[in-house]
Amino acid sequence: MEYRQLGRSGLMVSTITLGTMTIGGKGKFARVGELGVDETRRIIDMCVDAGVNLIDTADVYSGGASEEIVGAALGGQRKAGVLLATKARFAMGDGPNDRGLSRHYLIRACEASLRRLNTDVIDLYQLHEWDGLTPLEETLEALDLLVRQGKIRYVGCSNFSGWHLMKALGVSERERLPRFVSEQIHYTLEAREAEYELAPIALDQGLGILVWSPLAGGLLSGKHRRDLTPEGTRHLAGWKEPLIRDHERLWNIVDALVEVAAEHDGVSVAQVALAWLIGRSAVTSVIIGGRNEEQLRDNLGAATLTLTAAQRARLDQVSLPPLIYPYWHQAATASDRLSPADRSLLAPYLKA
Questions:
Q1: Does residue 237 carry a pLDDT above 50?
Q2: Mutual orientation of helices 247-262 and 309-319 as an angle, nearest 10°?
Q3: Which residues partner with 2 through β-bridges?
Q4: Integer Cα distance of 301 and 264 in angstroms
Q5: Is 17 helix (H, G, I), strand (E, B) or coil?
Q6: Residue 61 catalytic?
Q7: 306-339 pLDDT per residue, tens
Q8: Domain count, the chain
Q9: Does residue 344 fall inside a structural domain?
Q10: CB distance 183 to 165 below 8 Å
Q11: DSSP H or E stretch at residue 298
Q12: What is the pLDDT, as a whole number, of residue 245?
């Protein structure tokens, strides 16, 4: 297992993170998975044995049940070196103040997560989504209080747009408040929108990237084909994420993944899709889960898979997103003065 620095922090995290949305099985999350304490304990052991040192959850997963089960599976005693990450923002009650990123809500949400996780400290506390009503100063001051109280160690965000993220970093610098060390985003071979803004910001501003749903909800696992949706998958159960705009493009990407997997001995399509992401310059870690131990064991195999330059180029080309404005203009007129962050997006479009 490879370990990478999480943003500008001194924290080292494994290139694979254990995700826990499949744990709990309550409400709409039952469509994703319903692992209990014993199963969760086994998958944590499996991941730790493989070198995984980060577990990511959220208060909203199964209405808190995911955090509770993770806390019970760890037994109140962290396995050596295991880091815990969780998130807050979404509704955990019916009241008008039972959601968002206000000081009132965020402090209560963190304390509730600590209780459910049966721990004294959360290693990475992440804002799960943007809150356009609460001033960033208020949110970041609440995070500062939680850091000074020793309840959280590092802070990150998830699902922010580029301008949201840069505004937050600006407020952190101006007010000397905790600075995000990471952003948790959706990023796959099929969904490369993050390359327009979020990945270049990570490279330029020194943020780690944690990738959620790196297999596009299983669509890039190799089980789904043009005319096949397997029984027991989250999409057949009505799970709507991620959004797919061009199904023909999706299946072309799957075809390429199948071809690349066939060029290796004993390598799955899912492993190829994950290995492509792990090899992207801005990515720190990909978050994997699984409805069962077999899926998880297969996904863990991506940590040791190396794709050739030709294979990476093939996957890059079949999934290349259109160059939207102002980037097509920059590619045409600014190629003489591009930073490494600029080139992370524009390099494939520049004339040799």
A1: no
A2: 170
A3: none
A4: 13
A5: strand
A6: yes
A7: 999 999 999 999 999 999 999 999 999 999 999 9
A8: 1
A9: no
A10: yes
A11: helix 293-300
A12: 84
The partner residues of 287 in beta bridges, in order of sequence, read 17
User: How much is the pTM?
Assistant: 0.93
In single-letter form, the type of residue at position 98 comes to D
Domain that holds residue 98: 3-321
CB-count exposure of residue 70 (10 Å: 0-12, 13-18, 19+): buried
In this predicted model, what pLDDT tens digit does every residue of 57-66 receive, in sequence order?
999 999 999 9
Residue 351's pLDDT band (boundaries 50, 70, 90)? Answer: confident
Identify which of 65, 56, 55 has the alpha carbon closest to the alpha carbon of residue 116.
65
CATH number of the domain enclosing 76? 3.20.20.100
Q: In 134-184, which ranges are continuous DSSP H helix?
A: 136-148, 162-175
Bridge partners of residue 220, in order along the sequence? none
Looking at the chain, how many residues does it have? 352
Show the tokens assigned to 95.
């009241």
- Out of 61, 105, 187, 327, the active site residue is 61
Of the candidates 237, 309, 305, 319, the residue with the CA atom closest to the CA atom of residue 269: 305
Asked if residue 87 belongs to a domain, the reply is yes
Helices (H) and strands (E) in the chain, counts: 12, 10
Q: pLDDT category, 31, cuts 50, 70, 90?
A: confident
Q: How confident is the model at residue 236 (pLDDT cuts 50, 70, 90)?
A: very low
238: left (phi over 0), alpha (psi -120 to 50) or beta: left
